[in-house]
UniProtKB/TrEMBL annotation:
The chain crosses the membrane at residues 6-24. It is found in: Membrane. This is Tim44/TimA family putative adaptor protein. Residues 32-56 have a biased composition (Basic and acidic residues). Keywords: Membrane, Transit peptide, Transmembrane, Transmembrane helix. Residues 32-98 are annotated as: Disordered. Belongs to the Tim44 family. Residues 114-260 form the Tim44-like domain. Pfam families: Tim44 (PF04280).
Length: 262
């Protein structure tokens, strides 16, 4: 009887192990890197349709995501966990259905030249969707701000055009050469609006106005604050232009220009 018990538990262990493997899978080394502008998989969208619907009367909240904390160069970026320990990126590109409807309404009210430019880009690249682009741009904004503050030049290479990357890398090298460390918290993005869109010789360009709430502190080698105040939240306006060759197989957009209104 004892031998039969051993055989029975061995069978149970094998069955449970197989089920865990089938659910969790395994890494193959061929996983795709994160593309903030990637369009959602239709299969994923279909699987979400059975989920709970958002409250149509709930207010639109763009900048309420928990703060993303950027540590200094010596540490890896970390983000404040949500209540369940996981960051919430529900919906397409982190957008709730209501927020998406608001973005689509804003696009419909955009000036004629902006809508004409977006239509031209969509004609050259049928996969282009302005609302999805805005969602991706917001994610890219946080990724770039994080990487710059943390001094992660490698992470910036795929997100920035070469000239802009060299400018960012030079600023990071100058800061590191002085022994300074930057700590930045992106509290949220309160506005993300397309203000220009053009298509010229297959090159699509989309310019966005991004208003974010941030705290930023720069410390010297001794840990003394030389710029900024961790207790003060700044509302920062950035004008960022993204570009992509619509004839290229590479679906990724790159940041090609940054400005701030005077």
């Amino acid at each position: 009887m004892q031998h039969l018990d051993i055989v029975f538990f061995a069978i149970v262990a094998v069955v449970l192990g197989w089920k865990l493997y089938s659910v969790l899978g395994r890494r193959t080394g061929n996983e795709r890197r994160v593309d903030p502008f990637a369009r959602p998989d239709p299969k994923d969208l279909a699987s979400r349709r059975g989920g709970p619907r958002d409250d149509a009367d709930a207010p639109v909240q763009i900048g309420t995501r928990r703060p993303t904390i950027v540590r200094p160069e010596s540490d890896a970026p970390a983000e404040a966990p949500a209540a369940n320990g996981q960051r919430d990126y529900s919906g397409r590109n982190g957008m709730s259905p209501r927020e998406r409807r608001q973005i689509e309404a804003d696009i419909a009210r955009a000036p004629d030249d902006v809508r004409d430019g977006l239509a031209a880009i969509a004609k050259a690249d049928p996969s282009f969707n302005p609302a999805d682009f805005i969602g991706g741009a917001k994610i890219a904004f946080e990724m770039i701000v994080q990487a710059f503050a943390a001094g992660e030049t490698k992470a910036l290479q795929s997100l920035l055009a070469r000239d802009l990357y060299e400018s960012f890398a030079a600023a990071i090298a100058d800061r590191q050469g002085k022994g300074w460390k930057q700590k930045t918290v992106v509290i949220g993005i309160t506005q993300a609006q397309i203000i220009a869109a053009t298509l010229s010789n297959k090159e699509a360009r989309v310019t966005m106005k991004l208003v974010s709430e941030q705290t930023s502190v720069t410390e010297d080698a001794g840990g003394n604050v030389i710029e900024g105040d961790a207790a003060h939240v700044d509302s920062i306006i950035d004008i960022w232009t993204f570009a992509r060759d619509t004839s290229s197989r590479d679906p990724n957009w790159q940041l090609v220009q940054t400005d701030q209104p005077s």
